[in-house]
């Protein structure tokens, strides 16, 4: 029998999975959309909802590229509001460790944990891109190789702040309704290569002690950071074989750090496309990919690798006959494609060979080489596949990323989750109240 399968639900407002043109996609800034999403996930007994973060609007060649985003509201404000309209589901948000300060983040998460009754989760991410740093007047002050050094110091400082209150530092005086604080309550000092801070932390720890810590890096540095300090890893897209390798590697690293068996949890992102039959789901998945990668998107993606303006090329025509620009270029200050494909000329050669062999246009090639839906099929097929991934040593569960909200997410909650509940791998009712309890983690 498949072991317990953990489920998170990502509100996909800052990534290119979402199909904005689909009528089933609603607002991504109206609070009602967030509340509906969280309530749906809670009715389906998900472990948590998950909010991504975007600290700058995406741009290309100096112009805002609005194909995959519509508003970037602040995560803490949204999560705090969700705490008031939900009861059990965990509330996890991405908060950057490069452009924030430990005191502020620790106080915000302690507050969220109190407001939610112990349901707070923090996805610790790093940022090295100069174009994001400009929003904070820091430019590219932090070299890329140092970002996880700062993240580790940041997390250590936050944990020290949250631990600066002892269990007996707050005593309720029931006769007066006041609180009595001991003289040294909240005292802290943290000094390392990144931070030199000392003072009094203002907020006692919440019910969990500290929030559940997620980490989303897949690089060797990210894996090492997660293995040493995270409670759970938000893995990126990939096939079963890739996830098995990732899972085994992270567990090896965690064991080397003396972590308890079974930690950290590995929860990859899972996209999906459903249908009444497997054949219908495959047809629908093909339409979804065409909607996710329209002509403009295909050209923009190729520009990230070619590092030059390709606007004159037909997305339904052949790949460019010019070579990528290596080194500095005019396309963008920091692009995902440049990071993912560090050898642009070699990448271009491989893609030309693939396009010629299969007769692919630019748009078709981009669809071919970029991520497809992780799971495609009838609800029973998708449920089977999810169980197979967990049984096959690829993960401990999934963070579901729908291509439309509320449409596709509601469909998943209505059709797939009940099948997982019938198999006993997803809870039918919440047993605990905190996010740590949902994930089988000890409070600390």
TrEMBL record:
Pfam families: Bac_luciferase. Residues 23-394 form the Luciferase-like domain. PANTHER family: ALKANESULFONATE MONOOXYGENASE-RELATED, C2H2 FINGER DOMAIN TRANSCRIPTION FACTOR (EUROFUNG)-RELATED. InterPro entries: Diverse_substr_monoxygenases, Luciferase-like_dom, Luciferase-like_sf, NTA_MOA. GO terms for molecular function: monooxygenase activity; oxidoreductase activity, acting on paired donors, with incorporation or reduction of molecular oxygen. SUPFAM superfamilies: Bacterial luciferase-like. The lineage of its organism: Bacteria, Bacillati, Actinomycetota, Actinomycetes, Pseudonocardiales. Keywords: Flavoprotein, FMN, Monooxygenase, Oxidoreductase. This is FMN-dependent oxidoreductase (Nitrilotriacetate monooxygenase family). FMN binds at residues 94, 148, 218-219. Belongs to the NtaA/SnaA/DszA monooxygenase family. It comes from the Bacteria. It comes from Saccharothrix australiensis. Signal peptide: none annotated.
